[in-house]
Amino acid sequence: MIELAILDGDQARQRIPELAFILQDCVAKGASVSFMNPFSLAEAIGYFTDIAEAVALQEIILFAAIENGRAVGTVQLHPVAKPNQPHRAEIAKMLVHSAHRRQGIGQKLLELAEIEAKKRGYTLLTLDTASGEAERLYSRVGYKKAGTIPNFALWPDGGYCDTVFYYKLIND
Ligand SMILES: CC(C)(COP(=O)(O)OP(=O)(O)OC[C@H]1O[C@@H](n2cnc3c(N)ncnc32)[C@H](O)[C@@H]1OP(=O)(O)O)[C@@H](O)C(=O)NCCC(=O)NCCS
To answer: Which helix (H) or strand (E) holds 94?
Structure first.
């Protein structure tokens, strides 16, 4: 049974080890999400410690999928801090632990992020992703492909990967 949650600053701090465990697993399994292998749990904890602080400062909205009391998936909504883009937020760090994939958790997290974005008045969501399986997920929930930049980033074990930019207008 999966429960979805929007974490406040304190809840984010409490779940740092669980969130870091998910991130470390995703990078170890080859996800291009900013980090290179070897990527330690301590580094992942450092990343989510910063994110929890940003959540506490209300700079980031953090979502978690929780199974048996433990986070197994997560995604973030980053409102764009530019005066001319108050209507846009970015979807970031869409991560589901490899042992919990293909159960609809990724889709449910994206759907919740969109509901929350609408509630907060955002009308445009954007994201970028390494080309691959995440693309099918984004397309399935209605994101449109804007284009691909070749050699944008590196895979965590080396070698260039293309990055695909997606958007979704949510002003209906
Ligand atoms: C991309 C990612 C988030 C998807 O998470 P997920 O929870 O597996 O996503 P979903 O379960 O919603 O969808 C994945 C697949 O499972 C299928 N699925 C969903 N529920 C299912 C079920 N009950 N039974 C069988 N299959 C199911 C979906 O149809 C989808 O199939 P497809 O990929 O062949 O189209 C996950 O693979 C991941 O964390 N990857 C590494 C990190 C990453 O690359 N993140 C994106 C960077 S921006």
So the answer is: strand 88-96
Between β-strands 124-130 and 88-96, what pairing exists: parallel, antiparallel or unpaired?
parallel
Residue located nearest, by CA, to atom 23 of ligand 1: 103
Cα(82) to ligand 1 centroid in Å equals: 32
96 within ligand 1 shell (Cβ under 6 A): yes
pTM of this structure = 0.98
Sign of the dihedral through C-alpha 47, 21, 126, 133: positive
Q: What are phi and psi of 169, to 5 degrees?
A: -80, 130
At 133 the pLDDT is: 86
Does 104 contact ligand 1 (Cβ within 6 A)?
yes
Query: What's the CATH number of domain 2-127, 2.60.120.460, 3.10.450.50, 3.40.630.30, 3.40.50.360?
Result: 3.40.630.30
